[in-house]
Amino acid sequence: MQAFHAMKAHPDMVAGEGEIDTVLMQQVPGLVCKQGADGYYGISLKETKYGPLGVVLKVEDGSTAAREPAVIRVLELLGVLSENNTLPWKRPIIRNHRKIETGYLEADIHLTWH
């Protein structure tokens, strides 16, 4: 519990200003999170409609670009974030080397409870 409180008190020390971890911990009560190497992401939620939860996400190919929309979508599905949120990681734009928009990333995730 001490790590939870330390991360929540100083989210900017977890990932840095403006990073997804920091912003989520600043905006979502009862949430701490940390990105890891090779597409991993860990989330601890003190309270959801399902009770307290720990979530670990792994993007199979290790993509960090795909990880962030997946994190946002999981939090939406758990009811922690509104589906109308405007966080920049929800649907990041893909640009080519000339900075021309060529597409976007969007997570297609469905949760199943067992």
**Average predicted local confidence, pLDDT:** 94
Radius of gyration, in angstroms, nearest whole number: 14 Å
Q: Helix count, per DSSP?
A: 3
Relative strand content: 15-25%
The helicity comes to: 25-40%
Summarize the structure.
The protein is an alpha+beta fold.
SSE topology sketch:
Elements: H1 2-9, H2 20-27, E1 31-35, E2 40-45, E3 53-58, H3 64-77, E4 93-95, E5 101-104
Antiparallel strand pairs: 1-2, 2-3, 4-5
Describe this entry's structure for a reader.
With 114 residues, this protein is of the alpha+beta class. It contains three helices and five strands. The protein has helices at residues 2-9, 20-27, 64-77, and strands spanning 31-35, 40-45, 53-58, 93-95, 101-104. The protein has a three-stranded antiparallel β-sheet with strand order 1-2-3. The longest helix is centred in the middle third of the chain and has 14 residues, at 64-77. 21% of the residues are buried.
